Structure formats: structure tokens, C-alpha cells
């Protein structure tokens, strides 16, 4: 994997996204101090903004939620970061899914055109928007050659209707929908970058790509937090994930998985051929003798062999564990489909303090599952990976003491 190229891509994408969301915030009249200089007035069938009538009936509610969210300079900065990463997250997930053939091409260009296929198809009447108001809005955008507005509407709809995107990343916060980065379709803009060769086809096949993108995307934010530490500035809860996310090297991950899950499995199946495939397995001279003599094991069935990562990050350990579990189930005679379903239902668990990391970890594990059985994406089993925000434990303790 070309990490240097991926790093450059993620950092450039972040700058484009931050600028695009900033321009969108300015369009909606919000200033960096959190105030707004224009009001949006709801009318029947739409709204009036900057003296112009618009027919999108969904905007007023979202705009008012955004106004409530923006209180000061810090909240403006937080909303900008949140919206930027939300769209990076989803756009890269779409690109990964389409490049691997799990969904039809959506963001890709065709030869001789810089219009994304999702917009080209909509111009031919090929889209899956079912809401009448959104349909009329899409037709209006296409008639007026407002490709960027049509693109934002179509991508937002895809995020709501695609099972994997919706189940993994959840519903987009209402106000974030009106912060789709501006100028995404301009020359040398965000979509040009996504469709460039900055990330190779081979790297798109790696399920760890989403983790590398995440780490590099937040690297500048991480630098900001550490600069604050040097000035004795305490990190806020919102800044902790950026400061603590580190991608564990693959050999260390394999060492950990093979010497925990792997060892327990070999106690369960001492004659397994997998012993010779575990490169980083460390065994004592008497391991085999003891296992054969006592016939004792910590598990009685493969479904009891669980792996939990309490700081899952983007799921690197869980993905590596998935591969090893797959070998175990296949050795036991399970089909690929049976093995995938068992692993997702019974074997893998993860926790993280960061919602975004939890989402990416779930996505990575499902991508790994799809490498063995692509049908799992049609009706995905949501991996047992959960976010555990900083205040959760405090809240639980307060409830217990009441």
C-alpha cells in the first residue's frame, strides 16, 4: 500500500472539504463567530433567502437546526470539521464500494466527461429518488444545468437508501445535508481528486484503506492538538480521537491475534494445519504435549472463541482476526457464507470512544466479510462494534449512585 500517496490524498481532500463547507456556511449567511447576517423565511412550497424564492421545502428545518448549533467561533469550527469529515467519510465509502464492484459506478467519470455517472444517469431519468418533492427539485436542477446541486441531492439520497451506507454510517444530521461541500465538481476540485490516480486500484482492494485514510485525514488536526499540549492547553473531548488514533503495524496485529485467538484455537484443535500458517505464533516446548494429554480447551465450539478489541480504531485488529477465524471455520467444514455469518454474529467485538472510528471499523469488517461472500452486503449483519463516548461511564456511575 502506497501510504505516502494516500497521506497526500487525505490531507488534500481535507483542505478541499474544509474550504467547500466553509463556502457553504458563508452562502447560508453564517459568520465565523457563529452569527448569521441573513434570515431565511419559510413560505408555502419552499422558502425565501437573500430575496430569492426557492422550492426546496426541506431546507428551512435544516437551516434552523444549523442556526441553533452555531453559537460562537468554536462551534462554527466544530460544525465545519464535522460536516467536512461526514462527507469525506461517505464519499470515500461510496468510492470504495463502486471500485470493488459492490455497487454500480456513481462518482466515476466516463471517458471525455467530468460529470459523475450518478448525475449522467439522472439526466437519462435513471435514479432512485422516490420522494415527490425531491424528484421535482432534481428535475429543476437538471433543467437549469445545476449539476453541483443535483450531485449533492443524489449523493445524499444514496446515503439514505443504500443499505450498507445507511446501516454503517447512520442518518446524516439534518443540517449537515445543507453543508455539502461547495465547488465539489469544479476543475481540480474534490471529485477530480477522488477520481484521480492518487489511490491505485490495488489499494482500493485493501480493506485497511479506510483506516489509513482516517489516520491521515486527521493528522493535521492531531498536530494542532499536540501544539496545544505544548502551550498547556487541555484537549477537549472532541479533540481526543484525533490525538490518540494510531494505526498499529500489521506484524504487531498478527502477533497479538495469533497468540490469543490462535493459541486458544490450537488448544481446541491441537492437530490443526493452521499451526504452520501462524508466522508470529510463540509456543512453549510443552504446549503440544499438554494439549494432547489433557484434552482441555477453553472453548467447546468455535462460536465461543471471541475476540474483543476495546480500542478498535478503524478495525485493523478485527479485520486480521476475521481472516484467521475464516480459516478456522473453513477447516471445520463450514461454507464461506456460514463462516461469514458466524464470525459477524458470534466472534468479533469492538469498542471505541469515537463514533467515526466505530463506523469505519464496522465498514472495514463488512468489506472483509464481502471478500469471502459478497452477498453479505445485500442484507448486512451489523458487526458488534460500538462507540463508548467519554461521558458514558460517568453517566452510568451517576445513575448507579442515585
How would you describe this protein?
With 402 residues, this protein is mainly alpha-helical. Helices cover 57% and strands 6% of the residues. It has helices at residues 3-27, 59-69, 73-99, 117-123, 132-143, 147-161, 163-169, 174-177, 190-194, 201-204, 209-217, 219-230, 240-244, 250-268, 287-294, 316-331, 336-347, 355-372, 390-401, and strands at 40-43, 46-49, 52-54, 307-309, 348-352, 384-387. The strands form two sheets. The protein has a three-stranded antiparallel beta sheet with strand order 1-2-3, covered by helices on one side. Strands 4-5-6 form a three-stranded parallel beta sheet. Helix 1 packs across helix 11, helix 5 packs antiparallel against helix 6 and helix 6 packs across helix 7. The longest helix is centred in the first third of the chain and has 27 residues, at 73-99. It is globular. The model has no long low-confidence stretch (mean pLDDT 89).
Mean pLDDT: 89
Could you give the count of β-strands? 6
Bin the helical content.
55-70%
> Strand portion, in percent?
5-15%
State the secondary-structure class.
mainly alpha
Q: Would you list the SSEs in sequence order as H and E?
A: HEEEHHHHHHHHHHHHHHEHHEHEH
Largest sheet: 3 strands, antiparallel
What strand order characterises the main sheet?
1-2-3
**Morphology call:** globular
Unreliable sequence segments: none
Q: What is the radius of gyration computed over CA atoms, rounded to a whole number of angstroms?
A: 24 Å
Number of helices: 19
Q: What gap, in angstroms, lies between the N and C termini?
A: 52 Å
Tally of discrete structural domains: 2
EC number: 2.1.1.72
Enzyme class: transferase
Protein name: site-specific DNA-methyltransferase (adenine-specific)
GO biological process, one term: methylation
